[in-house]
Every structure is written in structure tokens, then in C-alpha cells.
Amino acid sequence: MRVLLDGYNLGLERGTGVATYALGLSRLLRDAGHGVEVLYGRAVQRSADPLQRQVEFFDREGDPPHRSRVARWRRGLRGVWRAAAWRRARPQWVPIDGAVVTDPLRGRLPEADRLWNHPEVFDAARLRHRLTGGFFTVSNAEIGADVAHWTYPLPLRLEGAANVYTVHDLVPLRMPYATLDRKATHLRMLRQIVRDADLIVTVSEASRRDLIELLGVDEARVVNTYQPTTLPEALLDTSEDELAAALRGVFGLERGEYLLAYGAVEPKKNFGRLIEAYLGSSVTMPLVIA
After folding, report:
1. CA dist., res. 260 & res. 87, Å (int)
2. Do residues 157 and 134 make contact, with C-beta atoms less than 8 angstroms apart?
3. What distance lies between CA 142 and its chain's CA centroid?
4. Rounded distance, CA 41 to CA 222, Å?
């Protein structure tokens, strides 16, 4: 099959767990022999010049933190216009032919046959959904994908293809005080997704139960795949003694003699409570937060 993945989280300045999920999914799909396409929403102008498309796609000025206040206002106005005017997004192919040196970005780029971009398509789609409740349609004429796997709940669908959505959790609904999502909008989008999706994927049994119980999803339409991960071969080939020496030399830690908490430092991860419990205990083993 030919599968389209979204680059919504892959395009963020800092990686997220969903970005890791998307990267791993792209590699596993390629390993299984499927074709992989990835759609980005970089804030760059469309161009008939392949070299210009490639250069601007990788230009950091396209990232929100590097824009001036005036540029952000212009982007906001463009987003409102696009949200109102667009009905179908027509992605443009971004050639990766070596003209731009991408080796420093290797860890952030998916395993893909082709990359596509439509300016700010994710932002405009979310704004349009907020204003009208409608989903954007992405043209499949040039991509030719059999399946669109949206790795995050997004108000988008690919025409002429099966549309699969990964819903990682229902934290905005179960713990509304722990996130900044617009809860009514998010709930409306999730209800449309569970109604119209060809399949829903999630990454834990707890999330699968939440989808069935809170949103009424048919059990046959939601699949728990768990969270995949890949480790570099160089790391897998490293001996236990070498790992122990690296831990000791770089971090001052002894192998097997520390507690590890791994995840983004944000309210829903509950690190504050973890630290309180650690400080209130008699444990002398170091607590490491990564």
C-alpha cells in the first residue's frame, strides 16, 4: 500500500511523543514494504521552482518562534482567510535531492518516499473546524495514497482513501484541568472522527476503554497497537560494561542504582507529585527525570 502520514508533530521545533510515534511508524511501514508519503504544513510560499521549494521548506524562518510580531499577525490573517476560503488542500511535492544538506536533521526526518507541503494546512484546518465544524479535504490526485494515517486527531481527511486516526489518549476530556485544549471544540472533533473514521488506533488499553466508554466507539473499530519504539543499532550493539561506563562518566550514575522518570515536564505527567513522594520517602537512590 501507499500510506500518507501527517507531519503535524514532526514539524515542531521540539520533539514530542507523538513525533516519536510518527517517526517510528514511518520506519516500520517502510520495513514492511509499503510506500510512505508525509504531509507537512510549513509556512512557506508555493513555488513552481523545485529548488526554491526545497530551500524554503528547510528554512528555520518558517518556524513560528523565528517570526517577528508583524509576521505572526500576517500569518494569523492568512489563516483566517484560508480557513474561510479553502475547501480542498492541494499539497505540493518537496524534492529531496541533496541540494539542501539534510544530514543534521536525520533524526527528525521520517522514512518517506516523498514529502509534501501545503502552507499552514494544519492551523487553517483547525481554525476552520472551530468556526464551522467542517473538516478539510486533502486532494489525493498527485499523492495517490491508499491510506491516510493521521497520527494525531486532526480535522482533515484524504479524498479517495481509507482514513485512519490515532487518538493517543482522552486526557483533555478525562482531566480537562491539565491541558489547554479548547474542550468543546476538541470533543466535537473527536466525535466526528469516531463517527467517520475507517479505523481508530490508540496506544494503550486504558485509552481504548476510554474511547469505547466515553465516546461510544464500536469495539471492532478501535485497535490498541501500543507505543512502538526503535533503538539505533549502535546502541543495541553496545555492551553492558560500555553502557555502565557511559552512565558513570557522563551522568555520575551507577547502572541499576537510580530511578528513572521519562517524559515531557507538563502538568498531566504529575512530576510534582512524584517529587513530593520521593522527598517524603526514605529512598536514597537518585531520582532522574529525563
Report:
1. 47
2. no
3. 23
4. 27
Cα(170)–Cα(154) distance, rounded to whole angstroms?
14
Q: 231: burial class by Cβ within 10 Å (0-12, 13-18, 19+)?
A: exposed
Here the cell at position 141 is 490526485
Compute φ and ψ for 217, nearest 5 degrees.
-75, 135
188 burial level (CB within 10 Å; 0-12, 13-18, 19+): middle
Contact yes or no for 174/155 (Cβ under 8 A): no
Grid cell of 5 as nine digits: 502520514
Answering whether pTM is above 0.70, one says yes
Burial of 166 (0-12, 13-18, 19+ CB in 10 A): buried
Tell me which amino acid residue 26 is. Answer: S
Q: Can you say how many angstroms the Cα of residue 129 is from the centroid of all Cα atoms in its chain?
A: 19
Query: 112 with 94: CB under 8 angstroms?
Result: no
Tell whether the torsion through CA atoms of 240, 245, 251 and 253 is positive or negative: positive
- The 10s digit of each residue's pLDDT in 157-196 is 999 999 999 999 999 999 898 788 889 999 999 999 999 9
Record the cell numbers describing residue 79, joined without a space.
Answer: 489563516
Lowest mean pLDDT among 2-16, 134-148, 150-164, 182-196: 2-16
Strands 88-89 and 147-150: unpaired
Cα–Cα distance measured from residue 233 to residue 260, given in angstroms and rounded to the nearest whole number: 23
pLDDT tens figures, 44-95: 888 899 999 999 999 875 554 444 454 555 565 565 555 555 567 899 999 9
Residue position matching grid coordinates 517524559:
263
